[in-house]
Amino acid sequence: MDKTIALMLVLTILVVLPTVQLVFAAGTDAHEYVNRKIEIWNLFFKMMTIAFTVGAVVSGTLIWLVWRFRESNPNAKPTKYEGTDW
Amino acid sequence: MSGHSNWPEWIYVGVIIVLLAYVGAEAWNVERLVEHVPAEAEVIKVIGQQWFWTFEHADGTKEVGELHVKKGHAYKFEITTKDVNHAFNIHDYVVLQDAVAGRVNEVWFAPDKAGEFPIQCREYCGLLHYNMRGTLIVEE
Amino acid sequence: MVLELQKPRPIWQIMFSTHHTDVGLLYTITSIAFFFMGGALALGIRAELFLPGTQIISDSMTFNRMFTVHGTAMIFLFLLPFASGVGNYFVPIMVRYKDMAYPKLNAVAFWMIPPAGALIWLGFADFTWYATPPYSAIRAPGPAADMWIFAQKILGVSSVLGAINFIVTILKCKHPDLPLSKVPLLAWSFLSASLIIIVAVPTFAAALVMLLTDRLGVSGFFDPAKGGDPIAYQHLFWFTFHPEVYVLVIPAIGMMYEIIPRFSRKPIFSQSSGIFAFVMLSIVSFSSWAHHMYATGMSFTEKTVFMIGTLAAVPASGMHVFNFIATMWGGRIKFATPMMWAVGGIALFFSAGAGGVANAAMPFDFITHDSYWVVGHFHLFVMGTIAFGSIGFLYYMFPYITGRMYNETWGKIHFIMSFAGTVMVFFTQHVLGLYGMPRRVYDYQPYPEYIVMNQIASVGAMIIGVSMVIWLINMIYSAGKGKEANMDDPWGLGGKYYFPYQAKNPHH
Lengths: 86, 140, 508
Prior knowledge:
The structure holds three protein chains of three kinds. Chain A has a domain at 34-73. By secondary structure, chain A is mainly α. Chain A has helices at 2-25, 36-68. Chain B is an alpha+beta fold. Chain B has two domains: 1-36; 42-139, Immunoglobulin-like (Sandwich), CATH 2.60.40.420. Chain B contains one helix and ten strands; from the N terminus they run αββββββββββ. In chain B, strand 6 and strand 7 (95-99) form a beta hairpin. Chain B is elongated. The N and C termini of chain B lie far apart (69 Å). Chain C is mainly alpha-helical. Chain C has one domain: Cytochrome c oxidase-like, subunit I domain (Cytochrome C Oxidase, Chain A), CATH 1.20.210. Chain C is 69% helix and 0% strand. Chain C is built from 17 helices and no strands. Chains B and C meet through helix 1, strand 7 and strand 9 of B and helix 3, helix 6, helix 10, helix 11 and helix 12 of C.
């Protein structure tokens, strides 16, 4: 349980607080117009960084799984359910 | 169910939720920034109809198919339609808003580069939808 | 499991039967027929967009009609009936009942589909598959538009009848020894999807009547000049059809839940998390409909609410992916054709979901709304996930239906070509969208980026087209002349299946 709390604390500090700060520290200076093109495309590139990172993990896992647990892999072992009535 | 540990799954779900929270917060913040229309923005009325755009400047001048604006000024588009729904889009400036019958929708931008940029319709509006184009001309 | 058809019977005996496997067969064959018809339209669309200017389609109206009927046919005449076909075959067997709860109603629900299909195809409407007013109310040419409206009405009734049947079969007719928590996940997926249908479809049914009376000029529900509001239609429409996305995707995931453990030679990692995720998805499917309407002038608050509602669907979808990966982990996986389709489907499901998260972020809508990004995104779902799961499952059912094996080599070639084609078409379309190409266009400006990417997409589409022809030949040839399948274990996986597939019906 302590570990959970510690984990949550770390996540809070790393993710939530900077975001909150970012939101409230954002400038409301009237003379410099917000450049919507830059803001929106930046958001897009941030999201794609996340998406491609997660995608690399997920598809990497999937490719490894397919390679490692195919039945023709020399290390393939019968599962304990084979031949039973599950 | 079968008595094995579900810890990895809960951590995985937790990570997903944290990532989603981050994406949501970022998106919320950017939306808040780009939706805030500067007070001095000049109003341009945009009227869509099958299959061309009409623009009416604040001083009453009208343009069809072409829109002249000045670099470094803020403009607020008030978008409406005479017939069916359209969507007003200047992709190079990430300006997009539907023209909906019976409504006036708003979107604003401040061009930072001079030149010619295509204007197009993004919402299906019938026969010549694909050709409902215009030109944005940003002057120095 | 005996899914009939192994004994040759006269065709009218199958057509006028109310037995669940016969109705299932009718559903399956009809849906595949419409799949090929809709696919032919898609190839026409891609051929036209291979280059700017006019290629093979002489006018934009024909083009507009083609993509409208392509969309309508693929969703309502292929994906939904195909899922119903699978449900008809498997749900009664999985809950150990002799048939569907209401066999006649079942046959009635099926027989509403051919006339509706005929109305859609003979009318050939042009107002896109979501028929937004005012265009659909004041400009869309009749009688095509009216025929489309009546067809949708019929299809709506058909899916509600089918949904009632599945719900009653699962909840009321399951064997008393079988607790609901032990009902296989494929049947659970039909329970979830059917519950969504019951709640969601009536809204669109109402919108259709309003649209029809608007077209007749006797009302003005969606006409601002008469005090109506076109946005009201969009709310009614998406309240039905965002959940409908889950009606399509949940059975496809259920099919993967059937294939993946079987070919991994392991039980599902966690039945309970699968059930939980299905129930979660059916609930949150109703929290996100207006994310289709960010550009219609919604307020910041509305957008925020629907962004959160959209993101809420992600953890449950992620749980399914986790479940699939954890099931395969430590297995001994046989990559027969159905398994390849299922695993390919999972990979594309993730890509589609990641694109969905990006779409949910509201400022991003200014870039992607009604652009080719959207086309690429939802096709990764409907083609990459749902059609992949469905095609894989048809390979899986094939020996049980026909008593014969399909050709494994050609099945694998079919998968590899389709997977490569799908990646080529729909990933490229995402990029096209980022370049700002609007969707539903007959012609595009001759920018070099547009041309190159449209050509990649068109080539990919042709690869898919060829692979589907291979599939059709494989299915037809193998059904008559394929090797006899070993009905106890067609793929040589060893072990027994966990549901009583031997249960024969006294009817046959």
